[in-house]
Design brief:
Elements lengths: L14 H11 L4 H17 L10 H13 L5 H18 L24 H9 L5 H11 L3 H5 L6 E2 L4 E4 L8 E4 L5 H20 L11 H4 L19 E2 L6 E2 L5 H18 L1
Antiparallel strand pairs: 1-2, 2-3, 4-5
Helix pairs in contact: 1-2, 2-4, 3-4
């Protein structure tokens, strides 16, 4: 459950819990939270688990240089690590770091692969379901992969012809057009979701994950069709917050794997 937030104590004592709480209060996305936590943990480990408040610019410089020279990270990865550490020091610890002189990661020299519209459509049309449908929604509606994965049945309005994107970039909701070419496949997918829900209910699987404590407000909604993910996972898993087995949505890596596989197949034929 990659987008189910890790629980934090009401009054966190551990450093990472305090850092997570601060990030959430700042209103950043959960993906950003996990990224920042990951790089701060890497930084702490690199410095022999020394508390960051006892470190400063020299240690940050050494870590960023290590990423470039020893770990061969890309410029974007190094930049992400830098952003995480600047947030840690400038915002959370309030120990501003004004100047850094680290070795920048080199941008790899390679020719980018850019698909034409016809090539992209060919890759999408040769994906298996439901990955083909997910890709069509992303391509036709401008959905990010995380937004497509988090779609729930209630977010699709066939009558008005639009999709409601919940908690998108900047933690804001928005609407986007529903491509007419996906309507039949979407209706068929919802039929699959309904059958899977019925199967799960009869074997005692817990309700779907509900955001923002809505499970307490609407205790029966988790077993309603409206709240189910349009693209549910093939297996159930334990909610990390509570001891409940649920069916979450598909993972982003699964879709990416299918797209890469089809792209390689296409390239080998061309």
């Amino acid at each position: 459950m990659e987008d189910v937030k890790v629980p934090i104590p009401a009054k966190p004592i551990k450093f990472i819990d305090q850092f997570r709480a601060f990030i959430r209060l700042d209103g950043k996305s959960y993906a950003t939270e996990n990224t920042y936590v990951y790089w701060v943990k890497q930084y702490i480990t690199f410095n022999n688990k020394t508390h960051p408040s006892q470190l400063a610019g020299a240690e940050v410089t050494d870590f960023l240089t290590h990423l470039a020279l020893k770990m061969n990270t890309s410029p974007n990865t190094q930049k992400t690590a830098l952003n995480a550490l600047m947030f840690l020091y400038n915002r959370f610890l309030k120990q501003p770091i004004d100047k850094l002189d680290f070795h920048y990661a080199k941008k790899p020299v390679r020719t980018p692969t850019v698909f034409t519209h016809l090539e992209a459509v060919d890759v999408i049309n040769n994906l298996e379901m439901p990955y083909q449908l997910m890709a069509k929604l992303m391509y036709g509606s401008g959905l990010r992969i995380s937004e497509a994965l988090r779609l729930r049945v209630k977010d699709i309005d066939f009558g008005m012809g639009y999709i409601i994107v919940r908690d998108g970039k900047g933690a804001k909701d928005r609407t986007t057009l529903l491509p007419k070419s996906t309507i039949t496949d979407l209706k068929n997918q919802i039929i699959v979701v309904a059958k899977l829900l019925d199967f799960d209910i009869h074997r005692g699987v817990g309700p779907v994950y509900m955001p923002h404590l809505l499970e307490k407000k609407y205790p029966d909604a988790g077993h309603s069709l409206a709240w189910q993910f349009v693209f549910p996972s093939e297996s159930i898993s334990q909610d990390p917050r509570v001891n409940v087995m649920r069916r979450h949505h598909l993972y982003s890596t699964t879709l990416q794997m299918h797209v890469k596989k089809r792209s390689k197949q296409r390239a080998s034929i061309s």
